[in-house]
Amino acid sequence: MTGVQVVVLGAGVVGLSTAVCIAESLPVCSVTLLAEKFSPDTTSDGAAGIVFAAPFPDIPLERQRRWFKDSFDHLLAIAQSQHSPDAGVILSSGWQIFKEVPATKEPYWSDLVIGFRVMTDRELKRFPDHKFGQAFTTVKCECSSYLPWLEERFRKAGGRMEQRRVSSLQELGDGFDLVVNCSGLGSKTLVGDAGVYPVRGQVLQVEAPWLTHFIRDGDGKTYIYPGVHSVTIGGTRQEGDWRLHVDEGDSTSILERCGRLEPSLKKAKVLGEWVGLRPSRRNPRVERERVLLPGRTGMPVVHNYGHGGWGVTIAWGTALDALGLVRQCLKEMPRAKL
């Protein structure tokens, strides 16, 4: 038994989750994680990491529910375990509020989070510009802690990590039997996916320990997410914008908008500002194909990218799907390899 050499590309929350699932579930595989950037320098590191979702247009809702449920249950188990402080995974309660009553009052995940209900008129009085709201408890996953925790878990399962830029799949033909592509925005050039585009997000970290409940405007542009050490406030959703520098105009707008929802933020000290590019696509790509490489009949490639702003929310669920696709690839490999 020579073992199957698997390479996972990308060390954000999707790539690391996928690498851990494969390394822990398939001992026949020797898993290498290749990435240009690791924590704390990934896009995932700046994510607010609160778990809920908007539906993708072309993916069966049942599959999306499975992704959400698998991820939520995975993170909830961590939040309720001794690992919670090290992994940076906590329970978070709060409100999602809407200026107009949404067409769907109960999202597809409403029965998968904890205690979902419609807000009362008395609760909504606090937000006079909003007509409808949802209250629930979910999970918040702080990737600056969670990613290093996953890295350690990956190493314990025998995984190898290597910092390296990969410009094309052709570079991997000699050393690996199977490629798992979790390169996010990198897939635009790596596999020529023109459907991948950035959605620029800017957030501020503020010191406001008195805040314990999240508040999110239903349009997704204004939010307040209390965390373990600070409160994340945001944000922006600027499609096709590749700028990675902090925009002071955006910072001013964020402070003003969030201050309207939570006036006490005017007393909060700004600790830092951050910008990241969400790796967006009309729908996430979780599928497999065979790619022709020089001297090879075809390299099996499993794709898992394009999660946009919902990476933390569905990463574990799509990682389990990708694991299933890897299993299918293994079944088709020559017995000598296995």
Automatic annotation (TrEMBL):
GO terms for biological process: D-amino acid catabolic process; L-aspartate catabolic process. Its EC number is 1.4.3.1. Its cofactor is FAD. The keyword Flavoprotein applies. PROSITE patterns: DAO. PANTHER family: D-AMINO ACID OXIDASE, D-ASPARTATE OXIDASE. This is D-aspartate oxidase.
